[in-house]
Amino acid sequence: MRLLRLEIENIASFENVTVDFFVPMLGDTDIFLILDAICLALYGTTPRIEASVDRTQARDDMPDAIALSDPCRLMRRGTGFCRVALEFEAGSQRYTASWSVQRARKRPDGKFQKKVWQLRDEGNGIILTSDREIAEKVQQLVGLDFA
Q: What is d(CA 27, CA 70) in angstroms, rounded to the nearest whole number?
């Protein structure tokens, strides 16, 4: 697998970042952000989130509370939308893996909506949207599962 380009919007404290893996400026980029974003695009989660010891779930008296293990927590404060998209090559094929989530009406105080996780084969335009299918295809392409 060869990484080509990574786009990050409203993840952690970063508003809008694009990493071109062919430009030798990675020394100036927050490596943890890159790792989080790559994992989020390919696997729908990150090591930081998975390592969370407290698996607190939302409670009735806190309707907008989300579990500490939920990647939605990576959304930058004060925003209503976040997204990562990773372009990569596996063999001679190009793919784009993307993950996004938004709050209702993209308002910072809106309720979290369902995440959108996709894997697009750029050669034939096929888009996978099932978590299971994406996980299986990514493992096949990359040679690694999330663990």
A: 29
Q: pTM for this structure? A: 0.84
Residue whose C-alpha is closest to residue 133's, from 118, 111, 115: 118
pLDDT per residue over 47-105, tens digit each? 877 665 444 444 444 445 677 778 888 899 999 999 999 999 999 999 999 999 999 99
Instruction: For residue 147, give every residue at least 6 positions away whose Cβ sits within 8 Å of its Cβ, in sequence order, or none.
Output: none
**One-letter amino acid for residue 82 of the chain:** C
Task: Classify the C-alpha dihedral 18-71-75-112 as positive or negative.
Answer: positive
> For residue 135, what are the CA distances in angstroms to 44, 55, 120, 141?
9, 22, 13, 10
Quick one: three-class SS letters along 69-105? CCHHHHECCCCCEEEEEEEEEECCEEEEEEEEEEEHH
